Amino acid sequence: MLPVIALVGRPNVGKSTLFNRLTRSRDALVADQPGLTRDRKYGMGRLGPGPYVVVDTGGLSGEDGVDLLMEQQVRQAIGEADHVLLLLDAREGCTGGDAIIAEQLRRTGKPVTAVVNKSEGLSRDAAANEFFSLGLGEPKAIAAAHGQGVHGLIVEVLESLPPVEMPEELPEGIQIAVVGRPNVGKSTLVNRMLGEERVVAFDQPGTTRDSIFIPFVHDDKHYTLIDTAGVRRRARVNEVIEKFSVIKTLQALEQANVALLVLDAQQGVGEQDANLAGHILESGRALVLVINKWDGLDQGQRQQVREEIERKLPFLDFATHHYISALHGSGVGDLYRLVDRAYANATRDLATPELTRLLELLVQEHQPPLVRGRRIKLRYAHQGGKNPPIIVIHGNQTEHVPSTYRRYLVGRFRRALKLSGTPIRLEFRSGDNPYEGKRNKLTPRQIQKRKRLKKYVSRKG
Q1: Could you report the per-residue pLDDT of 317-349, keeping only the tens digit for each?
Q2: Does 10 appear as a known binding residue?
Q3: Is 41 annotated as a binding residue?
Q4: What domains sit in the chain, N to C, each tagged with a CATH number?
Q5: Is residue 117 marked as binding?
Q6: Contact at 8 Å (CB) between 258 and 335?
């Protein structure tokens, strides 16, 4: 499983800034004001030698009057974590609140690293010496806002953790993660696909507590179904036993080849459905959108559900929409065909001549915009990876390609290559200009012409 790193500390010490730096995103709200982060926020770590999960938490004051709900969220994050980073403020120095939080962390028995943030402009020894008194080993001085020391910190933390454990001896085949909110029918769908009561299905949210890996064979093909715990809004996660559900679901997505995002047609598309869809899109997994409990709706309600999906999940336009009733089995048998097709498209080999010819046609049909009076030129394309398909496009000024033109290329590539069921990622690369920084040497004739022009201009003046 992926390692989990939790960020804790007093308010306004830079936890969200470090979260954004580690995830290479701007997902966490950052401002020079304490108390902005209240709930736990999860993200996939992109900085460092390997993948991991980062959990951002609200600030703890270390005093008796601390917000109990926020403290509960932080305690759950600590319980989920394999390693805890205690963020400290080099500008304020070691406070009584830091000492109280450090004492609480020592009692958990979790590995803890004291991280002294905002150390820019200070020597590392001067910034860290004051925090040895916390008894958490050698403090690490960083500047999260500028990225100083962050890479070395995360490398050291990941090296201290045990290697990532994968499921034991899973047979070769397509790994299918079944994800969704609680009580949308995930376990019922898994049982229906397997043809037996393999997992507990009950009309109560939170029946499934952990991710369950179930290898099986269907029509002489190997599959592994991953039944995950339902991910509810963090404010509603109260039971201690439920606190791992988000982490387990994110880890299951990292191990899966194809995700089945199960929606409840009778409840509609909620905020948490959109959040889960965003995680699937970020992970790059092939996707089939499964709308369950479809049999109990009339024509008007069905049309309303379709319009709601298009309105709230427009970024999943690549996914096939499949309508089923897991309880009665209608439409479930077709899921294998859709999963096979999505996986085949995600792992397909794309020929360089075909991609280049297609790129030329798309550019002729709709030219890239001008940048400072110069046209962006896209010259050729080739495949850069699979699952999801990565198309690498070479040209000049590619760093200025706008997002609207990227979406145009992705949509047309998908339509022309028939890559339904999988996201497509584009990578743009610009060649080095051999004449950059070099002045053009004038010929003797050009020099004489310049002198005559100067004389002419001076006479006119």
Answers
A1: 999 999 999 888 899 989 999 999 999 999 999
A2: yes
A3: no
A4: 4-160 (3.40.50.300), 174-346 (3.40.50.300), 348-461 (3.30.300.20)
A5: yes
A6: no
